[in-house]
Design brief:
The structure is a single chain. With 203 residues, the protein is α+β, with helices and mostly antiparallel strands. The protein is 42% helix and 14% strand. The chain has six helices and five strands. The strands form two sheets. It has a three-stranded antiparallel β-sheet with strand order 3-4-5. The longest helix is centred in the middle third of the chain and has 19 residues. The chain is elongated and about 65 Å long. The termini are far apart. The model has no long low-confidence stretch (mean pLDDT 94).
Length: 203
Amino acid sequence: MELKYPDNPWARYADDGITHCKTREEAESLLERLKVRFEECKLQLHPDKTKIVYCKDDDREEIQDEIKSDFLGYTFRPRLSKNKHGKYFVNFSPAVSNKAMKAMRKVIHEWRMHLKPDKKLDDLSNMFNPVIRGWINYYGRFYKSGLYPVMRHVNTALIRWARRKYKKLEKHQTRAENWLGKIARRSPKLFKHWQMGILPTAE
């Protein structure tokens, strides 16, 4: 790419890569050349993951079949954005992918918070907040609101923990959520997503 196609910006991480072309014809030509080059190196482009994607936005309004793609845990697709003057426009941009969110929810489930009633809330913060912070730092760089459902899932797990830990909350979902919400408002730095404003409900 650097030697033969210096005018085509590209990025690679491990075995994933993406390159930019100005026209579909240019993209099709480059794709065929890459297939040949890979074969020369005894490699093969992934038949399902390799595709040409049209970066549709306000300046690119053609009708195309492929207008979104996943790369490094992000989904790139047309999204409604707002400029500094408050005007909305369509921008081709990234946000956390559904696949990445599913993986994060699986990790939260595997934490089994509700099976740790012997732990204090501070203990849970020390155990899991570094991971939550890492997710937010990585996936929150673009369209941070895309992470909100996962962060609410963390709150749900914490509420289950509270109900298991305290008898007075065991049979009261709303009471447990309000109890945790009051703590979140009082100590928002305890969990990184609380600092973002993703708090349990509190009366």
